[in-house]
Amino acid sequence: MTRFFETPWVQNCIVIGGFLLLALLIWSGSRNERWKRAGARLRRDRVGMIALAVIGLYLFVGALEMIQVPSSTGKRSILDLLTHKIPLEESYSAPLAKTTLVQVNPKPLNGSHLLGTDALGNDTFVQVLKACRTALIIGGLTSAIYIPLGTLLGILAGYYRRRVDDAVQYVYTTVAAIPEILLLVAILMVLGKGLGSMAIALGVTGWVGLCRLIRGETLRQAERPYVTAARALGQSDWKIITRHLLPNVMHLVFIKFVLGFSGLVLAEAILSYLGVGSPVGTPSWGAMIDGARSELSREPVVWWNIGGATFALFFLVLSLNLFGDSLRRAFDPKRG
Amino acid sequence: MLSYIIRRLLYAIPIVIGVMVITFFLFFVVQSTDTMAKRVLGPKATSQAVQDWKVNRGYDKPLFFNIAKGEKLFDSLFFNQVGQLATFDLGKSDVTGRSVATLFREGAVPSLLITVPAFFVGFAVSVALALYLVFVRNSLLDLWGILVCVALMSIPVMVYVIVGQYLMAVSFKYFPAFGFQQEGLSTVRFLMLPVALMVVSGLGAEVRIYRAIFLEEIDQDYIRTARAKGLSNTRLLLTHVLKNGLINIITLVVASLPFLIMGSLVLENFFGIPGLGNLLFTAIQTADFAVVRSSVFLGALMYLGGFILTDICYALVDPRIRLS
Amino acid sequence: MSFSPAPYFTPSRLLPRIVGLLLLAGVIVGCGNDPHPPPLKTKKEDGSPWLVRYGAMNEEARSLDPQVAYDQMSRTILEPVYDTLLEYHPMKTEPYEVVPCLLEAMPERTALPDGGVTYLCRLKKGVFFQDDPCFPGGKGRELVARDVQYAWQRMCDPKVESPVLSTFQASVAGMTEVYEAAKASGAFDYEQPLTGLEVLDSHTFRINLTKPYPQILYWMAMHFTTPVAREAVEYYDGKEHPDGPGGALLLRPEFKWHPVSTGPYRIAKHQPQSSYRLVRNPNYTATTFPTEGWPADKEALLRPLAGKKLPLIDEVQIPIIREQLPAFLMAQQGYLDRSAVGKDAFNSVVTASLDLAPQYKERGVALEKDVTVSTFYISMNTQDKVLGPNKKLRQALSASFNARAWVDIFYNGVAEVALQLISPGIYGFQKDFKNPYGYNLENARRLIAEAGYPNGIDPATDRPLELTLDAVAGDSWQRQTIEFDQRCFEQLGIRIKVVENTFARMLEKEDQGAYQLASGTGWGADYPDPENYYFLFYSKNFPPAGKNISRFKNDEFDRLFEQMATMENGPERLEIVHRMNAIFAEECPVILNFNKAFFVMVQPWAPRTHNNQMLEGGIKYAVTDPVLRDAKRREWNDTPEWPIFLALGVVFAGLGYAVRLNQKRNA
Fold first, then answer.
1. Residue A182: its chain B contacts at CB < 8 A?
2. Is the pLDDT of residue B45 over 80?
3. Interface touch C657/B136, C-beta < 8 Å
4. S-S: A317 plus which of A262, C3, C83, C642, CB 3.0-4.6 Å?
5. Rounded distance, CA C105 to CA C278, Å?
C-alpha cells in the first residue's frame, strides 16, 4: 500500500490533483455573486495582491520539488534536476566560503554555496527551497483532511440541530479537551513518522475551530428567510445544504483555509522541536530551526541554517496572514 | 445561574469519560505494557523484573474489559483507573513512584510563576500597544504597526526562544541561560527571560485583536456623542473606549485563564523549569502513564472550566444573555 | 451600553503605576545570571571557607533505591550518598582495580569441592549510618553484617523490583527459592535468613555461590549489594503518619527518594526534575584519599591530599540540565566546575592541533579527554532471511561503513573508532587488533559481489538490493547520523530504507527480531570484564529474556563464552578472549562504530583528581578553590548597557511620536 503511494507517477497525480482541486474550488466560488464582489475588491488591495504573488512563488517552488521524475538513482524531483550541479561538501561551510568550517584541517569546497552548507554538507539554499514542499504538503494535506470534516460536521450540526448538534458538539468538545500536544504526539507515535501521518494528526486536532465557526454561521443562515422559504417549498435537505447553506459559508472556509495554512506551517516547527517532525531525509524548516539550538553555540556561529529557514518560513506565513486579512476585508468590507 | 453551573458540570462527565477513553486507547496502542516497563526499568532489566513491575501496578490486566473466565468484567485497567480518578485519587507515578498529586502541586508553582506574570504583563502591554495604535490610527505608524504585528505572528515560537536565549543570556548575560531555583526573591531572575519571551511571542496576535476591538468601540454612537460634547481625544480613549473595550477583551481571554496552570511546554522544556508542561512532556517521553492520564484528566477539567467562565462572563457583561 | 464617566474604574492612573512598580522590583531582584542558589553556609565551624562543587546531570534519576537504580543518572547521586562494599580505585584505570570500601579487606575466596565458591567478608568497624529520624533518638547506629543480608534479601523481594535479580539468582545460593516463596505468599519474609549470604557475627558474613562467578566482586562495587538499614526502609513508606503521639499527620517520603546511608554525603534538598543539593555527612570516616596509584604528572596536586579524610568538599550542587548546550554556556560563564565539550562547542574550544583554543588558555581552563567504557555499533539481525545466512553481505556492509568519518563529523574525531567489541581498558582488549572488515570500500565492493549482489544489484529482481535501517530519530543530531549511515551503505549500490521508530517501538522490534539493521545500538559496561560484553552475543541470551538483539548464534563462540565466563583472569583466559575477538570479527553480527570519548573542559579552580570512567564522578575525591572561582566568575560575566538604552530610546521615540501626532491633529 505505502509502496503504491511512493511510486513517482502516483505522487505526481496526487500533487496535480491537489492543485486542480484548489483551482476548481476557487472557480466554483467565483460564480457566486458575493465572491465576485470580493474578487473585485481584492484586486484593488495592493498588499493582498503582493502577498498572493509571494504565495504563488512558494507554490511554484514547492511544485518543482513535488513533481517526481523517474531516474536511474531512484526518484528525483525537477528541483533536483535543476540543482544537481551543486556539489555535496563534507560538512558545514559558511555562505560563499572557500573551505569547510572546521579548524582541524579545513578542506577546500567543491563549489560555491550561496547560503553555505549544513552539517552533512548539503547546500542550505537548496534545502530551504526543498523544504517548501514539506510545508506545502503538510498545509495542503492537513487542510484536505480537516476542511471537509469541519465544514460538513459544522453544517450538519447547525442545520439539523438537536441530536445531531449535541453529538457533534460532544465530539469536538471531547477532542478539544485533550491537551493538543498529547494528542499530536500520540497519533504520530501510532502512525509512525511521515508527512502523511503529520497531516492526519494535525487534521484530527485542527477541525474543531472550523467546525465551531461553521456551526455558528449555519445556525444564523438557517434562520434567514431564503432557507425557511426553501424549506417551505419542500426542497430536500440535501439541496438546501448544497445549494443554499454551503455557498453562503464557503467564504469563511476559504479565509480559514488561508489563515489555517499559516498556522500549520508554524506547527511543523513545534513538532520538529518535540522530535516528531518530518522524517529523516525530508528537509523541513522546522528541523533546520531545531538544529540551530546547538549550531548557534559554534564558533564561528552557524547562523545560515536557522536564518535561511526562518526567512523562508517567515515570508510564507506573513504572506498567508496578510492575504487572509485581505480576503476577510474583501468579503466583509464593513468590519475590515 | 447555579442550576446552569450544575448542569454544565454534569455535562462535563461524559466528556471527561470520552477524553479518558481516547487517551487510554492512544497510549496503549502506542506501546505495550511490556515496553512501558522496560523503559522505566532501563533497557538492562530482565523479563522477570518486567513481569513483577506490571503486576505491582495492575498493568497485567486487560485494557478495557476483562472477559477471562472467573474474573469480573470490569476488573480492567480502564475501569480501575477511571474509578480512581473519579475520586480524585491520582495515584503514583509509574516511573518515580512519587504521588502524582504531589508532583502536580510542586509543578503548578513554577508553571504559575511564569504564566501568571506573563499573562498579566502580556495583557497590559498588548492593551497599551493596541491603545497606542488606536491613538495614532490611520497614520503611517499605525499601518506599520499592524504590519509588524502580523510579522511577529509569523515567526515560530522556537525562533523567539532560541534567539532570545542567545541574545539575552549568552551575548548580554543579563539572565541565567538555563535552570530554575525556587528560593525566595531570587527566583525572579529565572522567570524574567521566559516571561519576557512568552509576552513577546504572543504580542503580535494580541495587539492586533485588541486594536480591532477598540476600533469597533470607537465607532459606537456613544463615543460620537461624547466627542460632540467636547471630550478630548486622549481622555475619550483612556476612559470610555478603554473601559468598554476591556470588557470585551476580558470575555475573550477568560477562557484561557484555567490553562495558565498547565504551563508552557516549550518554554519550560527549553529553560529546564520543572513545571506542569515539562511534567507532561517528560511523562510522554518516559511513558509514565500514571502522570499522563492525570494530566489529561486535569487538562480536560481546565478546558471545561474555561467554558463555564466564558459563559458567566458573557452573562455578567450583557444582561440580555441569560444562562439557561 | 450606558454612557457614564466610570468612576469605579480608572485604569489609566492605577494600572501603569502598579505595572511599573512590579517591573522595577523585578529588575532589581532579577539581576545577575547565577543559576545556582546561595550555598548553605559561607564558612565552616573552624572558620575556613565552605567548599562547594557545581556539577550537573542531564536527566532526573529514576530511583535512589540502591537495590533498584540501574541508570547512570541515579548512580550519579547514589555514588556520593551510599558507599559500596568494594569500590574502584579512583586512579588505577589500566587495568581497573577494585579495593575495599565498607569491607575491611578484600573478600577471602574459598573453592568448595562441590564446585561452589564462598567469599568471607568483614565489615569495617565503627561505620555509622547518618543521623535520621528513623533511628531511635534520631542518632545513626553502627553498620552491621545483618544490613548487608537485609539488602540482599531486598533484591529478592518481588515488590522491590530489583532489575538485576536474575543475574544473582544464577550463582548465589537460595535467592531463587526466597523469591518464589515471596511470590507464592504475596509477602517477603525478611526473618527467614538467606542461605546465599550468611551472617557469621556482627561484622562478618559469608557469600555462598553455587558455581564460580568471579564477577561477583565487581557487583560488590555496585550499589545493588550495598547495605541498607531496615529501620529506614520501613520508616520511609510513602504514607502518612502521626507526628509523635497525637500529632498531626505527616507524609513521609518513600525510601527510594529518601536515602539513609553511611556514605560521605546526604541529600540536603531535592527539587524533582530540577536539582539536587548534597551536603557532607559529618560522621563520615569510612574512607580516606588514596596514598598511591596516581600518574606521575598529578604528583604535585595529589601528594598533599594523600590520606586526607574524605570527602574534600562540603556541599555539592547538581542542577539537572537536559541539553548539552546550556551546560556548556553555564560552564563558560563559570557556573559549572566542568563541562563536556559537545560537537557544536568543539570548534570554539579546540584548535587544529587538538589543543585548547588561546582564549580558553587565557582563562586557565584545562582540556582533558575521557574515554568511556562503552562500544557503539549498528546491529544486524543475524536471523534475518537476507542478512542472516549471508556472512559476506554483513562483512560488505561493515567494510562500507566509514567509522572514521562518522567520528570526525559527530565526535570531532575525539572518540575512538571501535575495531573490536571490547572497549579500551577492559581485560582482553587487543591494542593492535585490526578488524578485517573495517572501512575499505574496495574490499566492500568485492565482498558484496561475492555475497551475490554485484554492484548492489539483486540478480533475482535485477534491481538494487533494499535493506531496512531501523532507528530512533528524536533530535537533529540523530537525524544526521542516520543520514550518514544510509549514505555509507548506499555506496555499495544497494538501497537503504530508513524506518524511524519511537523509542518504545524500537525496543519492541529489537525484542522480536523484527528488523534488519538497527542504528544507534551499543553497550556501556557494568564492570570492566570481557564477559560483560560477550554475554550480549551468547545464544542463550536471546531477547526478551536476554540482550542478544543480533540473535547471534555460533556454537564455537558459545562454548568459549561458557568457558571464559567463570574463569579467573590469566593467560588461558586471555587466549580464549582473543579467539572470541577473532570469531566476532569474522562473523560480523554488528557494524562496529566507536568507543565514546569526549573532551572535558576543566575550570582552573577545580582541577580533576582522577578520571576513572567506572565511577560516576567520584565526587568525594573532588577539590575546589572558592577564591579563584569567585574572581573568575566576576571576570567572565560583565554585561553591556547599550541594549537597555536602545530599548528605552524606542519607547520614548514612540511616545514622542504619539504626542506630536496628537498636537498636530488637535491643531
1. 23, 26, 280, 284, 292, 295-296, 299
2. no
3. yes
4. A262
5. 29
Residue C289 DSSP SS3 = coil
Q: Are B274 and B107 in contact (CB under 8 A)?
A: yes
Of A182, A185, A266, the CB nearest to B296: A182
The residues pairing with C320 across neighbouring beta strands, listed in sequence order, are C57
Phi, psi of C505 (to 5 degrees): -65, -35
Can you tell me the distance from the alpha carbon of C585 to that of C418, in angstroms, rounded to the nearest whole number? 11
Chain A residues touching C322 at Cβ < 8 A: none
- First-last CA distance in chain A: 48
Instruction: Mention every residue, 6+ apart, whose C-beta is less than 8 A from residue C408.
Output: none
Q: How many CB pairs under 8 A join B and C?
A: 208
**In the predicted structure, residue C4 carries a pLDDT above the cut 60:** no
Interface mutation vs chain B, best among C31, C67, C70, C273, most B CBs within 10 Å? C273
Kindly tell me if the per-residue pLDDT of A335 is higher than 60.
no
Question: Residue C524: what are its φ and ψ, rounded to 5°?
Answer: -105, 130
Q: Are B275 and B111 in contact (CB under 8 A)?
A: yes
The mean per-residue pLDDT over the stretch C115-119 comes to 93
Strand bridging mode C590-595 / C495-501: unpaired
Among A76-85, C65-74, C411-420, the least confident range: A76-85
**Helix ranges (DSSP H) in B136-167:** 140-153, 157-164
Q: Are C624 and C606 in contact (CB under 8 A)?
A: yes
Selected residues 243-262 of chain A with any CB under 8 Å from a CB in chain B: 262
pLDDT(C583) > 80: yes
The answer on pLDDT for B231 being more than 80 is no
CA C558 to chain centre: 30
| Interface A:B, Cβ pairs < 8 A | 105
Greater confidence (B294 vs C266) lies with C266
Task: Give tens-digit pLDDT for C550-574.
Answer: 999 999 999 999 999 888 888 999 9
Cα(C427)–Cα(C568) distance, integer angstroms: 11
Yes or no, beta carbons of B166 and A187 under 8 Å apart = no
Interface of A with B in 267-286 (CB under 8 A): 269-270, 273-274, 286
Residue found under cell 527551497:
A129
- pTM for this entry: 0.82
Q: What is the pLDDT of residue C14?
A: 64
Q: A287 to chain C: which residues are within 8 Å by CB?
A: 476, 479
Instruction: Give A9-62 pLDDT, tens digit per residue.
Output: 777 888 888 888 888 877 877 777 788 888 888 888 888 899 999 999 999 998
Verify whether the Cβ–Cβ distance A120 to C409 is below 8 Å. yes
Judged by DSSP in three states, C342 sits in: coil
Distances from the Cα of A239 to the Cα of A154, A155, A232, A253, angstroms: 17, 13, 13, 19
DSSP C204-255: EEEEEESS--TTHHHHTTSGGG----HHHHHH-BSSEEESSTT--EEEPPBG
Instruction: Say yes or no for a CB contact (<8 Å) between A273 and B158.
Output: yes
Determine the distance in angstroms separating the CA of C522 from the nearest CA of chain A, rounded to an integer: 21
- Answer yes or no: is pLDDT of C144 > 50: yes
Locus of grid cell 525484542: C511
Local structure of residue C96 (DSSP, 8 states) = E
Cell of C477: 543530531
- The helix/strand/coil state of B168 is helix
- How many other CB atoms are there within 10 angstroms of residue C661's CB atom? 17
Instruction: Name residue B231's amino acid.
Output: L
Cβ-based neighbour number of residue C659 at 10 Å: 12
Pick among C349, C468, C476 to test the A interface (most A CBs inside 10 A)? C476
Q: What CA–CA distance (Å, rounded) separates A203 from B107?
A: 31
CB pair distance less than 8 Å for A279 and C476: no
Say if A182 is an interface residue toward chain B (CB within 8 Å).
yes
